[in-house]
Amino acid sequence: METTYGTLYLCATPIGNLSDVSQRFLNTLNDVDLIAAEDTRVTLKLLNYFNIKKQLTSYHEHNKAEKGQQLVEILKQGKNIALVSDAGTPAISDPGEDLVRLCIENDINVTTIPGCVAAVNALILSGLSTKRFSFEGFLSVNKRHRKEHLKSLENDTHTMIFYEAPHKLTYTLADMAEVFGQNRRIALVRELTKLHEEVLRLTLGEALQKFEVDKPRGEYVIVIEGKNPDEEGQEEQWWEALSVIEHVDEYISKGQSSKEAIKSVADDRGVPKRDIYNEYHRDR
Ligand code: SAM
Questions:
Q1: What confidence score (pLDDT) does residue 87 get?
Q2: Which end of the chain is more exposed for a tag (fewer CB within 10 A), N or C?
Q3: Are 7-116 and 119-224 the same fold in CATH?
Q4: What's domain 7-116's architecture?
């Protein structure tokens, strides 16, 4: 008799507040045959809190190649597996992506039990635009790679979301200020769903000043405003230092008639032709 494959359940865990779990999350953990956890000690505490007794196995960054194959074999025997990480949604800056791919390659059903993800919650609290955003995860610890990553975002106009550990926060903000400028607005979203949840809305320059004095504590998400699309247009134009008369004369010297030159100047300055005409002929 052919065995029906089991299902892999991607189960999001709380990011600080245990009351954020859903009934479906609890039912799923109770019903599956096995829970694959990033750190079994962390998950055991969660299971104990909810009085769930279930077999646990580890699945993390350092054993994922070998362990992924083993989990696929178990799923192929018709067993159901829940995948959890220490906090938040598996496969988002956490192990899971490779296992999902492996399951898809092996025709194993994968489903999600949705819940917390720090990035989206930080974004909606940031006060910055939520219309278009990108999730950038953690910057590399390699100096060259992190600079290249930031540089590639320099002209992006959408909101950007980064994860960072507290001991690297100041260093990362300094790198960001170098690329995006001190005036770029950001939100530092700290300790989401916990007692000391806090959102600091400030500029990169102000954030750097703050952490010269205060030591960053807790878990942070950095949300950065995209580049203002008008910034390009705000660059100085070649004619800005010229008077209206000099501006018109410049076009005339390039071969335009005075009528054409007045129109060109009006277009450049975004004002009516009549105003340029009056100014040009005032003292003549
Ligand atoms: N998979 C998780 C998710 O869905 O958000 C992310 C895991 S990643 C290893 C951990 C990072 O997420 C932290 O360094 C921090 O940037 C962010 N994070 C997690 N919990 C947080 C919280 N309660 N408040 C603020 N940031 C948090």
A1: 97
A2: N
A3: no
A4: 3-Layer(aba) Sandwich (3.40)
Cα–Cα–Cα angle for 264, 270, 274, rounded to 5 degrees: 70
Kindly state if the Cβ of 220 falls inside 6 Å of ligand 1: yes
SS (H, E, C) 58-103: ECCCCCHHHHHHHHHHHHHCCCCEEEECCCECCCCCCCCHHHHHHH
Q: What is the pTM of this model?
A: 0.82
Among the atoms of ligand 1, which is closest to the Cα of residue 116? 4
Q: Which tens digits make up the pLDDT trace of 18-68?
A: 999 999 999 999 999 999 999 999 999 999 999 999 999 999 999 999 999
**Residue 114 in contact with residue 24, Cβ under 8 Å?**
no
Centre of ligand 1 to C-alpha 20, Å, is 15
15, 126, 186: which to mutate for ligand 1, most atoms within 8 A of CB?
15
The structure tokens listed for 193 are: 């769903």
Q: Please report, as a single letter, which amino acid is at residue 263.
A: K
Three-state DSSP at 40 gives: helix
Give the start-to-end residue ranges of the domains of the chain.
Answer: 7-116, 119-224, 244-281
Is the minimum distance from the CB of 104 to ligand 1 under 6 angstroms?
no
Place domain 119-224 in its CATH homologous superfamily: Tetrapyrrole methylase, C-terminal domain (3.30.950.10)
Angstrom distance (rounded) from CA 197 to CA 201: 13
15 lines ligand 1 (CB under 6 A): yes
